[in-house]
TrEMBL record:
Domain FAD-binding PCMH-type positions: 3-175
InterPro entries in the cross-refs: CO_DH_flav_C (IPR005107), CO_DH_flav_C_dom_sf (IPR036683), Diverse_Substr_Oxidored (IPR051312), FAD-bd_PCMH (IPR016166), FAD-bd_PCMH-like_sf (IPR036318), FAD-bd_PCMH_sub2 (IPR016169), Mopterin_DH_FAD-bd (IPR002346)
Pfam families: CO_deh_flav_C (PF03450), FAD_binding_5 (PF00941)
Organism: Ectobacillus funiculus
Top-level taxon in the UniProt lineage: Bacteria
Keywords carried by this UniProt record: FAD, Flavoprotein, Oxidoreductase
Protein name: FAD binding domain-containing protein
SUPFAM superfamilies associated with the record: CO dehydrogenase flavoprotein C-terminal domain-like (SSF55447), FAD-binding/transporter-associated domain-like (SSF56176)
């Protein structure tokens, strides 16, 4: 029935250039599709109604995981079409960023992960991998028709098409810089047996000196329809401090103020703020 009502034309580019050219030519009625596991849900809900689908799956240059050493620092590059299943089994990703492996393990069931891509998760702006990638300081490379532009994921999300789940840019690659040996946490609060988006998804990453002083901290939260956000004021509050009760109380209050989730039928924005603040304070307390 749905198929009869909506029958978009499907295009199969073989390169980033070709895909970009198609999107330019077809305009905003066209949207990119990778495995379609999220797009299909949004389509059935009537949130997207593309006249044309540009299927990226034939673009080999944006598949796979590799490692490079740049100026003595190791960087892991993940092509956008890499499936969540291959990420989960990648020893490179596990060694480099166990936080990302843990996040991917919590997404959907194996049958979906074997098709769903990391690019689709990120490009949607609401995927559960995003808070972990933000905490891992990930960069995103997009293709602009002739070259790849790389920027911090948090910045790309801020600039992304107004909270739409579709993206007018092609996400080509995710880069994970080396994070050294950091403590981390990832918590996804909500149901996952069918795809009901999480209530809140929170991730954090922290490095400390021997005396306990925090030298590096990243905190990120998202969940539901909320675009994941880095909590930069709360990070600043913690930088250079050691984790004590008084600091955690300040962090709790700060997260309540700083995190800006949206309300939906499952939970109010304030409830989500409270969960995020509680989880962050209690996870940091565990590090102490
Ligand atoms: C049963 C089930 C359970 C699920 N559980 C979860 C869950 O727990 N957590 C979660 O986060 N998600 C979940 N999902 C949603 C989905 O599987 C993931 O978000 C997945 O990573 C999306 O990848 P995809 O390749 O299927 O993206 P698609 O559905 O193909 O695309 C998603 C969006 O990204 C765009 N897009 C895709 N690739 C690119 C690209 N390279 N460049 C630009 N735009 C692009 C598309 O236009 C679309 O708007 C679930 C889905 C199902 C069916």
């Amino acid at each position: 029935m749905l198929g009869e009502m909506l029958s978009p034309a499907v295009w199969f580019p073989k390169s980033l250039e070709e895909a970009w050219g198609m999107r330019q030519r077809l305009g905003s009625h066209a949207c990119f599709i990778a495995a379609g596991t999220l797009l299909q849900i949004e389509w059935e809900k009537g949130r997207v109604d593309p006249g044309h689908l540009i299927n990226l799956e034939g673009i080999d240059e944006i598949k796979g995981v590799s490692r490079e050493v740049m100026s003595g620092r190791s960087v892991v590059r993940i092509g956008a079409l890499t499936t969540l299943g291959s990420l989960l089994s990648s020893s490179l990703v596990l060694q480099h960023s166990p936080l990302v492996t843990e996040a991917v393990r919590g997404i959907a069931a194996p049958a979906v992960r074997n098709r769903a891509t990391i690019g689709g998760n990120v490009a949607s702006g609401i995927g559960d991998a995003i808070p972990a990638l933000l905490a891992a300081d990930a960069l995103v490379s997009t293709f602009d028709g002739s070259t790849r532009l790389t920027k911090p994921l948090w910045r790309w999300l801020q600039e992304k098409d107004n909270g739409q789940i579709t993206s007018s840019e092609i996400v080509a690659q995710i880069e994970l810089p080396g994070s050294g040996t950091a403590d981390y946490f990832y918590r996804k609060i909500g149901r996952r047996e069918a795809f009901i988006p999480s209530v809140v998804t929170i991730a954090g990453c922290c490095m400390r000196k021997e005396d306990g002083t925090i030298t590096h901290i990243r905190l990120a939260a998202g969940g539901g329809e909320t675009s994941p956000q880095r909590l930069q004021f709360s990070e600043k509050l913690l930088q250079g401090m050691s984790i004590q009760d008084a600091v955690l109380e300040d962090v709790y209050r700060n997260v309540l103020e700083e995190f800006q989730p949206v309300s939906d039928v499952f939970a109010s924005a304030y409830y989500r703020k409270q969960i995020a603040a509680n989880v962050i304070a209690s996870e940091l307390a565990k590090f102490a």
